[in-house]
Amino acid sequence: MKHGPIALIDEEMPVFVIATKDSSYEKIVSNIQEVKARKGKVIAIVSHGDTEVKKIADHYIEIPKCDDLLVPLLATVPLQLLSYHIALMRGCNVDQPRNLAKSVTVE
User: Fold this and answer.
1) Which of 16, 17, 23, 93 is deepest in the core (most CB within 10 A)?
2) 40-66 pLDDT, tens per residue?
3) Contact between residue 60 and residue 45 where contact means Cβ atoms under 8 Å apart
4) In 10 A of CB 81, how many CB atoms?
5) CA-to-CA distance for 77 and 66, rounded, in angstroms?
6) What was the pLDDT predicted at 75?
7) How many C-beta atoms surround the C-beta of residue 10 within 10 A?
8) What share of the chain in percent tops pLDDT 70?
9) CATH T-level assignment (fold) for domain 4-89
10) What is the three-class DSSP state of 19?
């Protein structure tokens, strides 16, 4: 968040945040507050039952509470679905992504 990326935030900039209850939760909340101070739009992935981030985020997606090791797996699902639907809305062919380097090894 520091230095370069924070300079890009304005009222037109959506910022996606994974703000689940883990060891970095307080730092994430602080980062969300910095984004909001710059009038950025916050879309947060939160643990079920979280009330603190829900109050300050513009939008949120709840995922079930789970072990810290499983959080990345669960948080990835809504982000992948969001990416898929944005690509469809933009008219992109989701089956043929641009600039995908392919290599084939034949022996």
Assistant:
1) 17
2) 999 999 999 999 999 999 999 999 988
3) yes
4) 11
5) 14
6) 93
7) 10
8) 90
9) Rossmann fold (3.40.50)
10) strand
CB 36 within 8 A of CB 19: no
Beta pairing partners, 16 = 43
Look-up of token digits 């008219």: 91
Name the DSSP letter for residue 10: S
Sorted by where each begins, the domain ranges of the chain are 4-89
* φ/ψ bin of 12: left (φ > 0), alpha (ψ from -120 to 50), beta (otherwise): alpha
- SS3 state of residue 18: strand
DSSP line for 24-70: THHHHHHHHHHHHHTT-EEEEEEETT--HHHHH-SEEEEE----TTT
| Antiparallel, parallel or unpaired: β 41-47 and 59-63 | parallel
